[in-house]
Design goal:
Structural class: mainly alpha
Shape: elongated
Helix content: 55-70%
Radius of gyration: 20 Å
Low-confidence stretches: none
Number of helices: 12
Largest sheet: none
Number of strands: 0
Length: 201
Amino acid sequence: RELIKNNFDRGVLTEVLLDLRKDLSGQSQTVLIELYKDLGLHNDAYDKLSSRRWQIVSSGILELTTMEVDESYSLILKFINHRQSTIRKQAEIAIVNLKEEGIVYFLDNTRYKISEWQQLKLLDVLRHKPDFEPPKFGLWLTSTNTHVVLFALRLIKFYRQSDAEQSIITLLKHKKRDIQTEAIDCIKQFNFISALPTLKL
């Protein structure tokens, strides 16, 4: 603790711990994260969130996510609709990572486009969450954000949620071609026979 009283040394130690975090798992990883928090290094990451430079804010969010600082969840929420895309995307991944309800908050509140690459990254985060209980993604098929609708359809397919049959069939008449295509994929996967009349039309 005496050796990390100045900012430079704290920064070096933080970088070392973040680097080690990539190579550790299980109990060793848990001990490393506890050490990071015990030394108060997460407070430096909190300070980064107040910076006017997007690079620093983004690195702060990444650091808090990597070191699993759950308490930072409420602070990061406000960044999911940030005008700077790098900050926004980092925040999206952070809230989905830090809390199980993060995906619900994200789908309810995001106002921006969700790129194909970002969808894959978010799905990967969910896929690796232990004991994750997915919400009913059919709830977001009526979202006013078409990117949320498209992502919800993909999540429905991935988690094999066949309980939104009528909502999916209704999307065959959607004005966006990619949503129609995704809806057809769901109909094929779940063998929704009741979609035949609409498909013929």
